[in-house]
Amino acid sequence: MTALDSSGAPRIIQPRKLGAGRRTDPPKSLCTTLPPGQAAKEMVHVSATPVLALRGVSKRFGAVQALTDVELEVHAGEVVALVGDNGAGKSTLVKTIAGVHPIDEGVIEWEGKAVSINRPHDAQALGIATVYQDLALCDNIDVVGNLFLGRELKKRGILDEVEMERRSRELLQTLSIRIPSVRIPIASLSGGQRQTVAIARSMLGEPKLVILDEPTAALGVEQTAQVLDLVERLRERGHAVILISHNMADVKAVADKVAVLRLGKNNGVFEVKTTSQEEIISAITGATDNAVTRRAARTTGEVSK
User: Are 266 and 257 contacting, i.e. CB atoms less than 8 angstroms apart?
Assistant: First the structure.
């Protein structure tokens, strides 16, 4: 393109490149879209000081050593899956945290301070809620009655049914739990809906740590998805969650870390993002340390000599 200057002589004008001097967006190939569950994991802030920390916890029942020097840390906004074979000590460990079985040795730290948990009331006072596998729901009572079972609201000595129903609806709505009605008996609900009601009941006391014992056991695919969605919502709300499960697909879907117990001892803590399912299963079964591998290591050592 040409133009005339002040003297009348022609001069050349260089065309400006499109986008020059402007911020350019990265190419589409560099833009990644995270799945909803993974995106939620990336957005949740994990606290620096663990909400719960077990330091060298041991528990014995007579001649049986159930737990030996177990270490575990759980942070706010984090889901830690506790896995292990049958008899590995998962239930015993959970019951020591919940105050059912006081520990024999070791230290339990709550938000960085050593505490004593000798009974379930001590755990509840700290902010620990446990949902056991049997759920402990009353089939002949409606949803409201089960949510407030043992902690009923009263007004002038009479049950305040209106306020309990209002709080029940508000709680279920906050956790995005869909139930046909809060006034139908628990017996009318599906397995997944019963599990969500049991988890919702544990949230009434505003706990900081929620322990779920096999929440998806004996549930169908759709019901399992509902429970896993609820676990993710607990993490998004900043709760620390301990999830006991035998289902590796569920663990990989919602957990941030996996703590493996084997024969009452720690057998590894793994980051879900960087660990394969085979590695976790190997730690559960002890496949990484068995007679075959020991013989191979011994043979290799003898050859190197």
Answer: no
Q: Which of 127, 139, 286, 278 is nearest to 202 (CA)?
A: 127
Tokens of 5: 């200057």
- Whose CA is closest to 254, among 284, 224, 278? 224
* E strand intervals along 89-220: 105-110, 113-115, 128-131, 154-155, 158-159, 209-213
DSSP 8-state assignment for residue 61: E
Is residue 113 within 8 Å of residue 130, measured between CB atoms? no
Residues 52 and 42 sit within 8 Å (Cβ to Cβ): no
pLDDT tens per residue across span 62-102: 999 999 999 999 999 999 999 999 999 999 999 999 999 99
Q: Long-range CB contacts (< 8 A, 24+ apart) of 95-102?
A: 96/57, 96/59, 96/67, 97/52, 97/54, 97/123, 97/128, 97/130, 97/209, 97/211, 97/242, 98/123, 98/128, 98/130, 98/211, 99/123, 99/124, 99/128, 101/59
